[in-house]
Each structure stands twice: as C-alpha cells, then as structure tokens.
Amino acid sequence: MSERQGLLREKTQCQEEKTLSEFACLSAQSRGRRRPEAECGVRTCFQRDVDRITYCKAFRRLKHKTQVFLKPEGDHYQTRLTHTLEVSRIARTIARGLALNEDLTEAIALGHDLGHTPFGHAGERALDAVMPGGFAHYFQSLRVVDCLEKEGEGLNLTWEVRNGIERHTRGEPAATLEGQVVRLADHIAYLNHDIEDALRAGVIYPMDIPLECSAILGFTHSGRIGMLVGDVIESSTGQSAICQSPQVGEAMLALKEFMFAHVYTNPVAKGEEGKAQDMLKMLFAYYCSHPEQLPGDFQNIQAKEGVERAVCDYVAGMTDSFAIECYTRLFIPMSWTVK
C-alpha cells in the first residue's frame, strides 16, 4: 500500500468524523474482523465489505430466488435480488437523512438476505421443519458470509456488518443505528413492492387497500415509500434508536396485517407453495441418504459439522431453477425410446 493510497482512506475517515452524527458508526472505530488483516489503502473497512458482498456468488444467485410469487409469468415481478437492491436504496436514503454511515448501511442491506432459500419463505419453512435445530434465513445469511463463501474461508466481514445481518429480521435490535435502519428499510421495501406485485397479479385491487392506511401513508407506491422514509428520518433525528411516529407506525402495521390476510396467505398467490416445500424436503432427505453426491465443498462441511448441516447449506443455497432441476433429475422418470 502506497502512502498516497493510505491517505485516501484516512481522508474518508476524517470526513466521517466531521460530517456524521454522534450516533453514527465510524469506520475508524469498527470492532474489526474475525481474522485480522491489513487495511485497504483506498477504501474504508465498510466500503470493502460492500464490495465483498457484491462480488460474492451468493449475491449473484439472489436474482434467481423467489421473493413472494413462485415462477410468475412476467418480467416485472420482484426477485430476492431486486428486493435487496430496493432495501439498500431505502436504507441509504434514511442513513443520509440521519447523517449515519451510508457504507455500513449499504453493506448490511446487500448482505441481509444472502442466506435465503429457494422459493422464498416457503422454502425457509420447509428447511425449518426438517433441519435439526431449525432454520432461519438471517442466521443462514451470517453463515454464508462467515463459512460458505470463498470455498469455506468466508468473506471475513466486520463485526458491525455481521451484527446487522444477523439481527435484520427479529429479536434484539442491531447494535448500530445503521443496522436498525436496514431492519426497518427491509419492512418498508417488501411491504410496498409486494403490494405492487399483488396488484400486478390481480390478487388484490387498488380499492382493496384499506382507506385508513392510504389516507396516512399515501395512495401510490412512491407516495407510501416517501412518507415512510420521511417519517423515519423525522422521528429518529437526534434519537439514539431508529423509530417511527405512532400514527405512521400503526398505519404500516395495519397495512402489513392486510397483506398477510389477503396476499401472503392467499390461495391464489400461494397455491403452489406446498409443492415447493415438498420438493425441498425430498431433496433434503435424498442428500441426507446419499451424502456422497454432495459437491466437494459440502463434503468438507459434512466431515466437520455433520451431514444435515452440509445438506441444509447445499439446499438453502440453491436457486429456484436449480432446485427444480435437481428434483427432476432425481425423482422424475426420464423419457426413453426403443431403438
């Protein structure tokens, strides 16, 4: 690392100290990585984490993983990747409005769903049912960055990014405000793009959305996001935790309850989920009985942590299309002709 390069990183760190909020997490004050390593000359530790996540294989696979609707016919439905990108944009906007560390926020947002299963939450429930000890995508996301990427070496991310990834869904809030921002941005993103997908699919219609929610949050996609983001910034300014105003928070909760009642449990939208869950359970059982057919990386996991752990990691990492391909190859009779 040249002296000039080192000065570039130090310049960014000095800018953080001068411009960010007293509640922000400064890159120079990171708790560090699980394995110590030399600093980059140009990028801060959180900028490096953004790059490591963006370039990893698990991130690329998100483009072929279900968000809500299984195998929709149309080009404009959300995937797990587009969801992740929307969470990142919403979270960065909030972080900028609160003078928090945008690089840390972005890294957590980009990594938060790396451990998600094929077929969305249906796949998550399937693996939770068969994996000893259960399965949760947020713990799997942490496992991806710690153990599975880079042929088992992991990405060696900073403590703050790992903490934000692990706590992005439920339980104890993240230790940093940046991690708390991502947690709320995740909810804002999925609630609003799931409404758009449900409208596009004809599962709900605009007049179905509760009027009392729209009157507070807005009647359009952009209007709702603008209101929710602005409210978080206004309510959290000068606070040591990320929060919403009571009125907006209650309206968002009511809208979420509407979506669970009319979309997330709707038989039209979710009618195929049982098949997807059965598929993953059968794949899990098959590879547990035939662990020798696991790829080499997962053979190492099997030797160290047991066959169920290796199979779970393998199946959880599959894309929708690869899971269907594996199922077809293993369980569907192939056609043949008499010569």
Topology:
Blueprint lengths: L2 H17 L25 H10 L2 H5 L18 H18 L4 H10 L8 H11 L6 H12 L10 H8 L10 H25 L9 H7 L3 H16 L9 H19 L2 H4 L2 H17 L6 H10 L1 H10 L3 H12 L8
Helix pairs in contact: 2-5, 4-5, 4-9, 4-11, 5-8, 5-9, 6-14, 8-9, 9-11, 9-12, 10-12, 14-16, 14-17, 15-16
Q: What would your notes on this structure say?
A:
By secondary structure, this protein is mostly helical. It has one domain (3-331): Hypothetical protein af1432 (Orthogonal Bundle). Helix content is 62%, strand content 0%. The chain has 17 helices and no strands. It has helices at residues 3-19, 45-54, 57-61, 80-97, 102-111, 120-130, 137-148, 159-166, 177-201, 211-217, 221-236, 246-264, 267-270, 273-289, 296-305, 307-316, 320-331. Helix 14 packs antiparallel against helix 16. The protein is flat. The termini are far apart. The model has no long low-confidence stretch (mean pLDDT 93).
Uncertain residue ranges: none
Encode the helix/strand succession as letters. HHHHHHHHHHHHHHHHH
Q: Tell me about the biggest sheet?
A: none
Radius of gyration: 22 Å
CATH class, please? Mainly Alpha
Mean of residue pLDDT values = 93
Strand element count: 0
Instruction: Output the CATH topology.
Output: Hypothetical protein af1432
Counted up, domains total 1
What fraction of the residues are assigned to beta strands by DSSP? under 5%
Could you estimate the helical fraction of the residues in percent? 55-70%
Secondary-structure arrangement, i.e. CATH architecture? Orthogonal Bundle
Provide tags for this entry.
about 350 residues, mainly alpha, Hypothetical protein af1432, about 60% helix, flat
